[in-house]
Design goal:
The protein is α/β, with parallel strands linked by helices. It is 27% helix and 16% strand. It contains 19 helices and 25 strands. It has an eight-stranded parallel beta sheet with strand order 20-19-18-17-16-25-24-23. Strands 6-7-8-9 form a four-stranded antiparallel beta sheet, sandwiched between helices. Strand 7 and strand 8 form a beta hairpin. Helix 11 packs parallel to helix 13. The chain is elongated, with a radius of gyration of 28 Å. The two termini are 42 Å apart. The relative contact order is 0.08.
């Protein structure tokens, strides 16, 4: 397994070992780091072998062999030796801080989707983006990947149950000391009178100045860094039966090789062999014989769908062009979203795609030079019977949006009647596991395609929370369940907390003021929400006020007597984030807009706004974000096309917020948004 959750554990050779836990802050004590890293010690946890150089081997952290990228290409390190560049900045940073070429070798693939996670193959290791968003290494010696003991004429020791029986208990308070001693005892520097230097190689895999170039942490953390790459020994040292001059030691994430002739100890080039299994190229006969029954055997099929010979065996995988060198055309496979820079303001539109001309709607978003589309997904409508999800319309939405191309935000709300004892569909389910199951299936189906998910909508409004009393803690529990399920299925997905409705009201049986409810979300369980959101959702209700109007200058006039009636209310919400130590996150406006003349009760403020003002206010709101809000993520105009829906009555509140007429002709707002600088 490659995708893991914090709660799962595995029995491996009779030893109960936690599979995964988010990496701790590297400035903590060595013991804390080792306690965190111990959870990476399962053969399924996601780490691989490193080329562990002896103490006196030359440094190679300056990326020898790397050359400037070809003209017009990214500036990420490119290696002419293999014809590949490091796929992204995260991988490049990890490469540099974990020993560079000495540890990983050269890249031998592009970045691609592999078993539900973004990876890149190097000669010795396979980097992956883990569920917490950090970079780690995939465990190539996992039983499901490459558990073999015969490769290219060499014979390696198998996992020893006797050795694993001595692995320290990860929950013990002195685990850090005990695991360090376990490594020393089972990875000796001298074995059978030979200077195998296994312990020395382990401790010098990564150098302090590489891991911490700014000396931001103490050198005592280095054993934990090297444990992260190797894991613990899982065999005893053993001679190669075909060559008495070779001695091997198996770790959880690699195999160390001592060569008596050269007196060198280093890690084997295992990732190259997994690539050989996938492609069938340079595949040694002994390894091919053992790997014929593997689901990875000769799967690489350029030109076929997803680049796979047998796609059903490798869900969440797209090998299209994975091993095509730089400059080689890649046959299109699974549609992927366009690039997105999370450090720049994003432009989005809320739209209605259900049973519509999706090509027309997505094209209008793109023609306005917007890069995002938001679609609300009612769980109640797509899983009417438990376990039977209707993917038809969702599949088409994803396909048309990616063809435009647009990035997608799915905002998930409502619950099927079967999930609540009262049969209502406008609130959360009785059992949060049901919600987690749906979110996991949704994110798994569109892994790598749907870039972001908003978990619920306006939960501070009783009508959106099942009609009962509103409780911020209940919502955070829903968010925790949804976040964990999404990340397990698609580690790279962006999870946005449900945006609140600005309402100026305070009655838990009806609605809670958005600012107060927001504070309550952060107060719940000591601010646990910070661990279960990648971005914070908000709604900016302009009502009948210009976007630049100060919310602190309220009046007694209708829809002007409370700060929540102003666009700049989001500044007050942002202050809550900052006070609670969450300033590193972006705020996403998943809805904002201005209604024109509106017949719906409670929306009379729209009567004060002309179409020209609506256009001006929307553009000015984006201007505010560009000039004053460096913390803003993506802003979604509410809405694009509800005015085109023929089945909505004239009294419905949504069409007057729209920027298209009934016949799809643009209103002034659409044209103004299309023309504005982005």
């Amino acid at each position: 397994m490659i995708q893991l959750t914090a709660a799962r554990r595995t029995r491996y050779m009779g030893v109960d070992i936690p599979q995964y836990m988010t990496k701790r802050n590297m400035t903590r004590t060595l013991l804390s780091l080792l306690l965190a890293l111990c959870t990476l010690l399962s053969p399924a946890a996601g780490a691989l072998t490193a080329l562990a150089a002896p103490e006196h081997s030359p440094a190679e952290a300056t990326l020898p062999g790397a050359v400037d990228a070809p003209a017009g290409q990214d500036s990420l390190p490119f290696f002419s030796e293999t014809g590949f560049r490091i796929a992204n900045s995260q991988f490049a940073d990890f490469f540099t801080k974990r020993g560079g070429l000495r540890t990983f070798g050269y890249p031998v693939s592009r970045g691609f989707l592999f078993l539900g996670t973004q990876v890149q193959f190097f000669q010795r290791q396979i980097m992956q983006v883990r569920p917490d968003g950090n970079v780690g290494t995939l465990n190539i010696l996992d039983e499901d990947l490459m558990p073999y003991t015969r490769i290219n004429g060499s014979v390696f020791p198998a996992v020893s149950a006797q050795v694993l029986a001595g692995v320290p208990d990860a929950s013990a308070p002195d685990y850090g000391t005990r695991v360090a001693e376990f490594v020393r005892s089972n990875a000796p520097d001298v074995w059978a009178s030979l200077p195998v230097a296994f312990n020395q190689a382990f401790n010098n895999t990564v150098r302090y100045e590489e891991a911490f170039p700014n000396r931001e942490a103490p050198p005592t953390l280095m054993p934990g860094i090297n444990l992260e790459l190797w894991g613990v020994p899982t065999s005893q040292p053993a001679y190669d039966p075909t060559n008495a001059g070779f001695v091997y030691l198996r770790f959880q994430r690699g195999i160390m090789h001592y060569d008596a002739a050269s007196n060198l100890t280093q890690g084997l080039l295992l990732a190259d062999y997994l690539k050989a299994i996938l492609t069938g190229e340079n595949l040694p006969p002994d390894l091919e014989s053992d790997a014929r029954s593997s689901r990875f055997y000769r799967q690489y099929a350029p030109g076929r769908s997803l680049g796979l010979a047998r796609p059903a065996q490798l869900p969440g995988t797209d090998l299209s062009g994975a091993f095509a060198q730089e400059g080689v055309p890649v046959t299109p496979g699974r549609k992927l979203p366009p690039p997105y820079d999370p450090n720049r303001l994003g432009y989005g539109m809320g739209a209605h795609l259900w049973y519509q001309d999706m090509g027309r709607v997505t094209r209008l978003v793109k023609e306005a030079d917007f890069g995002w589309i938001k679609q609300q997904v009612r769980w109640a409508d797509v899983e009417r019977t438990k376990g039977q999800i209707d993917w038809n319309e969702l599949d088409k939405m994803v396909d048309f949006s990616l063809s435009a191309p647009l990035n997608i935000l799915f905002s998930v709300v409502s619950s099927p009647s079967w999930s609540r004892a009262d049969g209502r569909t406008n609130g959360p389910p009785d059992n949060l596991d049901d919600f987690a199951s749906f979110m996991g299936q949704l994110a798994g189906r569109y892994q790598g395609q749907v870039r972001a998910y908003e978990v619920w909508n306006e939960q501070n409004f009783s009508r959106e929370w099942g009609g009962g009393r509103i409780n911020a803690g209940d919502y955070v529990e829903l968010l925790k369940a949804g976040y964990s399920a999404i990340k397990a299925a698609d580690p790279n997905a962006i999870v946005v907390s449900g945006a609140l409705t600005p309402n100026g009201f305070n009655d838990p049986s009806i609605a809670i003021d958005d600012l107060l409810y927001f504070e309550q979300m952060y107060q719940y369980q000591g601010g646990v929400i910070k661990q279960y959101s990648d971005a914070i959702g908000a709604h900016a209700g302009g009502y009948n006020n210009a976007p630049e109007t100060d919310p602190n200058t309220v009046s007694t006039q209708p829809f002007r007597g409370h700060p929540s009636f102003y666009f700049r209310r989001i500044e007050q919400l942002r202050a809550v984030m900052e006070r609670n130590g969450d300033a590193n996150k972006r705020m996403w406006l998943t809805e904002f807009g201005w209604s024109t003349a509106n017949r719906a009760p409670g929306y009379e403020y729209g009567n004060d706004i002309t179409e020209a003002q609506q256009a001006s206010y929307l553009v000015h709101a984006f201007d505010l974000a560009k000039t004053r809000y460096p913390w803003m993520g993506v802003m979604f105009v509410w809405n694009l096309n509800f005015g085109t829906l023929p089945d909505l009555p004239a009294s419905d509140e949504k069409p007057p917020f729209g920027i298209l007429n009934r016949d799809f002709t643009p209103r002034p707002a659409y044209l103004a948004l299309q023309r504005m600088a982005k």
